[in-house]
Design a protein that fits this description.
alpha+beta, 4-stranded antiparallel sheet, 3-stranded antiparallel sheet, 4 helices, 9 strands
Length: 237
């Protein structure tokens, strides 16, 4: 063997074409994986949301068991269903030590909905009388506003008042915020305040907690109106 023969060999590298082929394959794999990762992320949010609502269901049953079977009712008739009155807030927070984050869907948009869960739970709104606390789910309480809309729409879904109601498996207690806002409530017509709104033009759907404790995911196409001012304000579950 000649001295230094091994040192004279040149190491062959990638050609430009080979490098471009490898980059193309990597880009293709990424493009195939990203939708799957997005779907997995959305599925995880839906599952966490359903878990939150089950916890709310247990809270409602706990309250009913200590109040002669009656579910919580703020009795004021707010048009906004995402409000908790100070007396209920105090019971949930101090008496039951409820994890307030379960009142907010993991897909809660802090930018358009006024703040993150910790801030909203700690700071009451001052534009209502009495002052109220904003939560992230529509609470289907047996209050005047809810009953009036059911009568108007003929949905035949009067809210549950007691946990002994035979319709418990058919009537919701709480559900995801799935809303349409338009003038005069918003400058444009948008579903942008809804949760599970990953792609347009409409939300993907929402979870609903029923009176017997079970939670169901409904795609938007299967949701029904519970408030309907066409193109002004619409609420679905």
């Amino acid at each position: 063997m000649r001295k230094g023969m091994g040192m004279n060999r040149r190491i062959k590298g990638f050609t430009l074409v080979e490098l471009l082929v490898v980059i193309g394959i990597i880009a293709l794999l990424i493009s195939m994986l990203l939708p799957a990762l997005g779907k997995a992320r959305e599925s995880a949010k839906r599952a966490a949301c359903a878990s939150n609502l089950r916890q709310v269901g247990l809270l409602w049953q706990m309250y009913a068991n200590e109040h002669k079977g009656f579910f919580p009712d703020h009795g004021i008739g707010f048009g906004n269903w995402t409000l908790i009155t100070p007396d209920l807030h105090d019971i949930f927070d101090n008496q039951y030590k409820f994890n307030h984050r379960a009142f907010y869907c993991p897909d809660w948009n802090t930018d358009v909905n006024g703040g993150d869960p910790d801030y909203l739970w700690a700071n009451p709104r001052t534009d209502t009388t009495p002052h109220t606390y904003t939560v992230g789910y529509s609470i289907y309480m047996p209050q005047g506003n809810t009953i009036a809309w059911n009568n108007a729409l003929g949905n035949k879904l009067p809210p549950l008042m007691k946990n002994s109601d035979k319709r418990a498996a058919e009537i919701p207690l709480a559900f995801d915020e799935t809303n349409l806002y338009g003038p005069p409530y918003n400058s444009t017509i948008t579903y942008g305040y809804s949760t599970h709104y990953s792609k347009g033009p409409k939300p993907d759907g929402g979870n609903a907690l029923f009176g017997d404790g079970h939670v169901v995911w409904r795609p938007f196409s299967e949701m029904i109106h519970v408030v309907n001012y066409p193109s002004q304000f619409e609420r679905f579950f």
